[in-house]
Design a protein that fits this description.
single chain; alpha+beta; Heat Shock Protein 90
């Protein structure tokens, strides 16, 4: 049973495309790289602006929080406040709530060293005790200040419903009686946003604008280099076409000379040997000579068949006259003589460029040759289809499978074919087929082959 073939979506196989332009590829890469660079710089600028804005806002919040602790909160806290004197608490409450009404401060607390809340803008927190974090405990008895970004997720902030980040400032000071206290204040992040916008307004034109100006200056150079590469590639292709045309003519001449010379001479020898054998005298004395003539005739006929096969493979007579399908069917028929049933599906690329057709034929020829000689397969499938700008050729069989590194070690024909495909921006893969056998897959860009 022939193995199933692999077919792809061929699209409009009859439509011949020109090789992709180096200018277009270079400009696409340039524009794509520029956009990526702009995006990376924009993200980096935003990150730097946010970091700088937070640092500036924290410095200002620390200064203002420290001043508020020493000038307002500290002098208004004394033993009467600690004991809950209503009059003293009212004075402290009026002073601090006046600062809250200004809008820049969101919440405030005054802490005793044992974790008691001496005063808070949230009335229900007054007099309650909470565990103090280590940086806050270290502030008691000092004039130090600690500041950070907070989201009010601590236990003592459970009643403070503001969302979003705030600037959290703890300032150490002493009350009117000289007892250490810590003044806690939360400042709005509006200043952070204002500073970030100001920094972005200064950094963005410099960073992004410089890159855009640089790309505008480099773009003509990239265009010029792309056109130069395109011209160089065109000249190279033209030279290769001339060289390949000369090689093609030489292959025709060699094939003709071999066919009209050596092959015909050997055919004459094979035709003359039976006549020589018939002229030998009958009897046992001539039996040895007749045996030698029979062996010589078999050798000559085998060499004639081998030379004719080589001539057909060197310059397939039906490839340009009869087309790819007929030539590949001839290869499949030849492989069938080795006991391999070959199915062929190459109609999808039959109308491609002549250079592409010759490369497709060469890949299939080498693949079927390896199937017949090495695979011990009973069935094989040959497919060729077009996928976008690529031509994909697959030769698969149900034989014993490829050896490790078969392309690199020992298979000269595959190594030569792999090098040839590499020269036309293509690739050659030899892999084990699921279920047993070998898959030879070749891919190259249409219009790049010149064989």
């Amino acid at each position: 049973m022939p193995i199933p073939s692999t077919k792809g979506d061929t699209g409009e196989s009859a439509r011949v495309k020109q090789p992709p332009s180096a200018v277009r590829r270079a400009l696409v890469r340039f524009v794509a790289g520029s956009l990526v660079a702009l995006l990376a710089i924009a993200v980096g600028t935003l990150f730097v602006a946010k970091s700088l804005a937070q640092q500036a806002a924290l410095r200002e919040a620390k200064t203002r929080g420290e001043a508020l602790a020493r000038v307002v909160a500290g002098p208004l806290v004394d033993v009467d406040v600690r004991q809950g004197n209503a009059m003293k608490l009212a004075v402290l409450n009026d002073a601090l709530r006046g600062r809250l009404r200004e809008g820049s401060i969101v919440h405030m607390k005054i802490w005793a060293s044992d974790g008691q809340v001496l005063w808070s803008d949230e009335h229900t927190l007054r007099g309650r005790r909470f565990p103090l974090e280590t940086p806050v405990r270290k502030l008691f008895g000092t004039n130090g200040v600690f500041a950070d970004i907070s989201r009010l997720d601590s236990a003592e902030n459970a009643l403070e419903k503001d969302s979003g980040p705030l600037l959290e400032v703890y300032a150490g000071t002493v009350d009117a009686d000289g007892v250490p206290i810590v003044f806690e204040s939360y400042w709005s992040d509006e200043r952070v946003n204002d500073d970030r916008r100001a920094i972005l307004n200064r950094l963005a034109p410099v960073s992004l604008g410089s890159l855009i100006l640089f790309e505008l200056a480099v773009f003509p150079l990239a265009l010029s280099l792309g056109r130069r590469v395109d011209r160089g590639q065109s000249e190279r292709n033209k030279m290769l076409r001339h060289a390949i045309s000369a090689a093609d003519l030489e292959r025709r001449r060699i094939a003709q000379d071999l066919h009209d010379g050596v092959v015909q001479d050997l055919a004459g020898v094979a035709f003359a040997l039976p006549s020589i054998r018939a002229q030998l005298a009958p009897g046992p004395a001539a039996d040895g000579a007749r045996h030698v003539i029979d062996e010589l005739k078999a050798v000559v006929q085998r060499d004639i068949a081998g030379l004719r096969t080589m001539l057909t493979e060197t310059y397939p007579p039906g490839l340009e006259e009869d087309g790819l399908v007929s030539a590949v069917n001839a290869l499949a028929k030849r492989a069938g003589r080795s006991g391999v049933v070959v199915t062929v599906d190459v109609d999808a690329v039959a109308d491609e460029r002549p250079d592409d057709i010759r490369l497709v034929y060469r890949v299939i020829r080498e693949g079927l040759r390896n199937v017949a000689r090495h695979s011990q397969a009973s069935a094989a499938a040959v497919t060729a289809h077009r996928h976008d700008d690529d031509i994909v050729i697959v030769v698969e069989d149900d034989g014993r499978g490829p050896g490790d590194g078969a392309i690199r070690s020992g298979h000269l024909g595959l190594r030569v074919l792999a090098d040839l495909l590499h020269d036309v921006d293509g690739s050659l893969e030899l892999q084990a087929r699921p279920g047993g056998g070998t898959v030879l897959k070749a891919v190259f860009v249409t219009g790049m082959a010149m064989l």
